[in-house]
Amino acid sequence: MRRPIVVALVAAMFLAGCTTAESLPEGRVDGSAPRPVDARDPADIPTQAGAPAGSCDPRASLRPSGALPGAGRMPAGSTMAQIVKRGRLVVGVDQNNYRFGYRDPKTGNLVGFEIDLAYEIAEAIFGDRNKVQFRTVTTAEREKAIQGGTVDMVIRSMTMNCDRWQRVAFSTEYFSAGQAILVAKGSKITALKDLAGQKVCAATGSTSIRNIAAKAPQALPVSGADALDCLVMLQQNQVAAVSTDDAILAGFAAQDPSTVVLPERFTEEPYGMAMKKESTDLVRFVNGVLEGLRADGTWTRLYNKWLSALGSTPQPPAARYQD
Amino acid sequence: MAVLIVLGLATGLAGAIGVRQRIDLINGATARNGELTVAAQRLYRALSDADATAASAFLAGGVEPAAMRERYQVDIAAAAAALSIVSGGRAGGEQGDAAVAKIAAQLPVYTGLVETARVYNRQGVPIGGAYLREASGLMRSSLLPAAQSLYEAVSEELDDARDNAGAFPWFAIFLGVVTIVALIVVQRYLTRRTNRVFNVGLLAATGAAVVLVIWLAVSAVLAAGRLDASRDEGSAQVARLAGARIAALQARADEAHTLVARGNGAAFEKDYVEVMPRVTELLALDGADATTQAAAQAATAEAAKWLEAHKDLRALDDGGQYANAVTAAIGTEPTSTASIFNKLDEQLAGAIEHNGERFEREVDRAAGALTAADIGVGLLAVLLIVGAALGLQRRLAEYR
Question: What's this model's pTM, rounded to 2 decimal places?
Answer without folding.
Answer: 0.84
